[in-house]
Each structure stands twice: as C-alpha cells, then as structure tokens.
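Quick board copy: two proteins, each given as sequence then tokens.
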Amino acid sequence: MQTELAKADNRIPVIFMTGHGDIRMAATAMKAGAIEFLKKPFRNQDMLDAVRLGIERDRSRREIEKSIHDMQVKVATLTPREREVMGFVAAGLMNKQIAHELGVSEITVKVQRSSLMQKIGAKSLPDLVTKAALLAGASQPVLRPIPSEPEGDRG
C-alpha cells in the first residue's frame, strides 16, 4: 500500500503496525518514508507518539508547499527580465555585474530589482535570496547559473 501511495504522489504519513514484521521489512518501510514501524505488542503511547509525529510532519510539509505555491504565484507576475535579475541577485552578483551581463545600465538593474522585490514581497536582499532558494529547492527554473565576471572585475 505504501508503494501505491507513493506512485499516486500521495504523501500521507504512514505508520506500520504488524505482528509479523522483521528488520528487513522495517528498513524497507522506513526508507520509503514511513513515520514508524511498530511491531506488536506495542504500547499505546508508542502509537500516539507516531501519530503525533506524522501529523507534525504533514503539517510542516503542507506549510512548505503552501509557501512554495504562494511564491510561484508571485514569481509568475515577474517579467522575463525581472526573473533574470532575480537569478543574478540570488547568485550574489552586484548591480554593476548584472548590468554588464544584461547589457543595460546599472540604474535599469536597480529599477528592475526594486520592482521584482516589491512584486514578490521581499523586504531585503537576504529575504530575496531566501525566497529564491525556496523556489530553487522546489525545482523551479527561476535561477540562472553564475555568469562570467566582467573583464574589468578580474584579479
């Protein structure tokens, strides 16, 4: 059943309770993401602890998924250029470097950076980087690789 749930992308927490389990079964279940593998007889408290842990993990997963979804909705409002700027900023480039990479003025980059920060609700550069990392962790193609340095910035 655990395998079928995984195939259906159903990430409901799973707790195994069995009277005939062995170490291999327990290891397989745990590697596949089971919360707990309880072998009978077990204490009621063990089951309650496993259920509590499953609820906590599921709540945390849902909160993270909601944050990612909310950020994806905000990023969808960005222009393609703002997405590029976001990727460069998240990669640690300064406005001057971004301007060089994009072939625009530094002022233009500042305006685009300000606009994208407002659209996604970033209150600071670290907040912007955190939001970009959240999306990168969600396998979103928002960020670009770090570009080569401008000729004048080497060495």
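And the next:
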Amino acid sequence: MENKTVFKGISSNVIWLGLVSFLNDLSSEMILPILPMFIESLGGGRMAVGLVGAIRDSLSSLLNVFSGYMAGRTGKNRLFVFAGYFISGVFKLLLSLSATFRQAVLFSSLERTGKGLRTAPRDAIIADSMPTRRGTGFGIHRTLDTTGAIIGSLTAFLLLWFFGVGFKWIILTAAALSLASMAGLLFVRERHQRSDNKILSIKPGQLPLNLKIFICIASVFSLGNFSYMFFILRAKQFFSGNLSESIPVLLYVFFNIFYAAFSLPFGVLSDRIGKGKVIAVGYLLFSVVCFGFIFIGSMRGLMILFALYGTANASIDANQRAFVADLAGVQLRTVGLGAYHTLTGLSALPASLIAGLLGKYISDKAIFTYGASVSFVCVFLLILFLIYRRRQSR
C-alpha cells in the first residue's frame, strides 16, 4: 500500500476516508431526525417506525462479519468500502422517491446494508495506514464523522423550520451529498493481497484468545449501552410546551459537539498510555452519566450529563476499534473487526429492548440503573483483562 502521509505523519488514507465519512454522516444525519416524521406523513404508524429501527440495526450488524471476512479473504477492502457507500447513496435516493410508508420502510432499512458492508473493511484500511498510531487514526476518523453528524442535523433543522423545505427534498439533497462523497475514495490506496494468501483459510473462530475476551467485554457493555433516544426522552420530561421538543434536540447537538471534540485527543492519549485504560475510563463515565440521569433534572445538570455522555462515547467508540485492530494482528485484522462490529451490534438490539421494557413496566429510572450497573461491571472486567495481559507479557 502506498501510504502517503500529511499533517505530521497522518496517513492520507485516514484523511480521505474521514472526509468521505464526514460528508456521508452529514447526509445521514439530515435524514435520521426527520425519518420517523417522513414515515408517518406517508401513513405509517409507530410499528412502522419501530420496524425500521430494528431492521436497520440487524442488517448492519449481520453484514459486518460477512464483509469483514470476505474483504479479508480477497484483500480488496477498498472495493467493499466503495460498494457500501454506493448502496447507501442509492437507497437514500430511492427513499426520497417513496410514495408509501412501506416503500420508505424498505428503502430506509436497505440503506443500512451499505454501512454493514463498508465498516469493517474501512476500519482495516485505517488500521493498516497508521500501524503505530492507530488510536490517533481512528480518533481523526471519528472526529470528522461526528462533526458531519452535527452539521447534518443542524442543516435538516434549518431547511425544515427556517426555509420550509419538504421531507422529500431534504432526503434528495442528502442522497446527492452521499453519492458525491464517494469521490474521495478515488484517493484511497491499499495493499492488494494475492489469492493464495494465508488469509483465505482464516475463520472467525481462529481469532486470538485475548481478542475474543475483549470482544466479549465490549459486547457486554453494548448490552447496557442502550439507544441515545432514551436520554433524549428522559430530558424531555423536565420541560413543557415547545421547550420539551427544542431543548432535548439542542442537548443532543451538545452531546455530538463533545463527542467530536474529544475523539481525537482520546485517540492520541490511547496511543501513549494504552487503549484499554482509555476505554475503561469511558465505561466509568457512561456509568456516571446513567446514575446522573436518575437524579438530575436541572438544565445545567443536563448540559453537564450530555457533555459527559459525548465524552464517554469519544473515549470508547474509536478506541475499541483500534484496540481490536491491535489484538487481532495483521492477518486477522479485517475478520476481527468484522466479528467485533457484529457481536457488539447484535448486543445493542436487546439493549434498547430491555431499556424499553424497564421503562414500560417499572420506571425510566430503572433504565438508567440498568445501564449504570452493566457499564460499572464492565469497568472491572476490563481492568481484570488488562492485568491478565500485563502478566502475560512478563
């Protein structure tokens, strides 16, 4: 792979993939805030909206391990990344043309297959491009990705409320941005492996023990890391009238700002002190945030909690992927990332279901007690794993 560097040793691959993700996430976040309203405007009810959420997460998770394995076998990560972004763009375009809620459910669900195809191969390219500074590489990518999300949601708000642009035109604009973002992939380079490479015989079951243990810990955390929507709904309870809708949206933007701002610093820090330590801090912060949502209801308190929520995500997300890349090694990297994304993604499905059941049959406080407890357990599991690894290395 021709691995050119820019900006003091930062790989050009990381920059280009980050810019592609920036534009694509800008596109996606223009759609996500209005998607439930768009489905309802076409005659769909709550079940249709719920079905979209379930199918989108399931398809993306199940495809991650397939794409990771196949990209690893063929050595053509870039091809899978290109196909993933192209599929997302096409189904966003079809979504804008939907005439019935059934079409909207179908197209918005299939759009997620693009993410499932591209995520693990894209992460493998980033990991290969910065072998000694993976935390920094993933942190840069996450920062650009999340910045796109912030601008996208704000853009949708401006187009809808200040300019009166209809749902379909917003989605069509987002689709055009998504397809245009693919131009950046032309500048991405990777190492092409021969078909007789040892990777052909590699299966997910052959992953190293340390990697399996960490993926299990990350999956347990994912089981308690329920959807951000529960945080927004909790915040909504403390306001009335128009404020009950506008303030939670602003707090969500606040969350994304801190998510973007701390992704790179935590990536750089993880390269210096160890990724496991930074991830453990993130787990602990998430536990603190959940406990805070049980007791705090003031505006100032909610701002602090959403800021900490974004900081926790910045500490966890990119660094977990970088840690998986380190633990997997060169030959198993793509397969390992695919297994990680699949298992943590599948764990996220019952997480929100459990949270919903707790909220329905007990109380909203029970939701956050559950999240805080699971994440706190994961702090100790990860610390024990890090101690085990340290003893192994002696």
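Board note added afterward: Confidence is low (pLDDT under 50) at residues 194-201.
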